Amino acid sequence: xxxxxxxxxxxxxxxxxxxxxxxxxxxxxxxxxxxxxxxxxxxxxxxxxxxxxxxxxxxxxxxxxxxxxxxxxxxxxxxxxxxxxxxxxxxxxxxxxxxxxxxxxxxxxxxxxxxxxxxxxxxxxxxxxxxxxxxxxxxxxxxxxxxxxxxxxxxxxxxxxxxxxxxxxxxxxxxxxxxxxxxxxxxxxxxxxxxxxxxxxxxxxxxxxxxxxxxxxxxxxxxxxxxxxxxxxxxxxxxxxxxxxxxxxxxxxxxxxxxxxxxxxxxxxxxxxxxxxxxxxxxxxxxxxxxxxxxxxxxxxxxxxxxxxxxxxxxxxxxxxxxxxxxxxxxxxxxxxxxxxxxxxxxxxxxxxxxxxxxxxxxxxxxxxxxxxxxxxxxxxxxxxxxxxxxxxxxxxxxxxxxxxxxxxxxxxxxxxxxxxxxxxxxxxxxxxxxxxxxxxxxxxxxxxxxxxxxxxxxxxxxxxxxxxxxxxxxxxxxxxxxxxxxxx
Length: 489
Ligand code: ADP
Ligand code: MG
Ligand code: ZN
Fold this sequence. Notes:
Number of domains: 3
Number of helices: 17
Bound molecules: adenosine-5'-diphosphate, magnesium ion, zinc ion
Number of strands: 15
């Protein structure tokens, strides 16, 4: 068999594959199996009861809101919803888990196969969703410097989680990052999770493997303890390099669970293949089957708005935005609503509205931490402002002043322009008068200009702008001045 050098090279080209397991805490008022408050940051061990502490004889009862939230996420990711599913016991010992088992879902999750289309550097990628299931969170171990030992806070025990499992469809740390950003954005849009990374309300496990192009997927390693999206990127990069080095040196990657240490930037072995955990899953005997009526599933489907990943794709493909611009607008329900309303009004060009939102609106939201919904700014007023700027009625500085007025006090754009005297005067008579006065007052510059010093024109325009108190349209003024100077010649 003859092979070209390229074919040989391609055979040894190593590809990486990534699958994610994303955990998100749901923001229900109470926990998944008891009436304890689901609240972050309370005094340790104040939101606990016999059920979430797993005291003998205490019986769990499923919070139906948890199912509603999970089904909504299922709809958002186009998943099949299982009308009948079940909870299972996952048995293991750890000090943060007083019952010594976690109630989760194994064989029949609430949501089955789905997909998420994301846009990565201008290309659409489809990521398969394997499943979404519900489960309870464990407590938190506190390693305090003042105390020689470990403290347990069980407030988080029984906080509801969804776990979203992807197919091994991602092929770079960048794709994984964009996927995670999209998931977070969707969770916020449908309002089921706070997604506060710093509070651990969204976390992920990262599975990485490397294989030669054209051969079956390689053995994977699972990274645990990945606490931010940027840590996921660093962990994936490290793991790809580590596995490529192993394969290039002629060895095999072993199936392992590894701990990511983000401070040190390395992963270390937690469990190897020989001692993979056996969780001895079995159906949870204290809870019945979860049965969802057709109407309930459909009602929840109707509650899903257009989602940010779809918006992003629409903004890039139909509105010609770049990916970063589309993300900034689509990621924020506030900005997206404002933009979509401006487009629907078609008072100004969509591009002007986008620029104003990416600029002034984003700056305002970042500076004040406020949402646009809490301000008097309307899409109509913003569109009128954009239109006035497009038509040269106001300067860019003037537009910023009008924006601040609209977002703080509200009102009518035209009235504000009038009241603040911001209209750039494009009146020919007014501009002619100014041009004539400047020419007669600046003989030296005029003769310089006629003598060939073309930069003298800039000075004259500056003088004329001053004379108009900054209200004249500079482009018009310049052309009028130029014409008059030609005649002087
Ligand atoms: P487990 O139950 O042991 O965690 P799963 O089959 O549920 O195993 O897979 C968990 C995750 O691992 C999924 O996100 C899946 O996409 C990913 N995965 C499976 N095989 C590979 C592979 N060869 N390379 C990378 N990721 C993989
Ligand atoms: Mg796993
Ligand atoms: Zn409780």
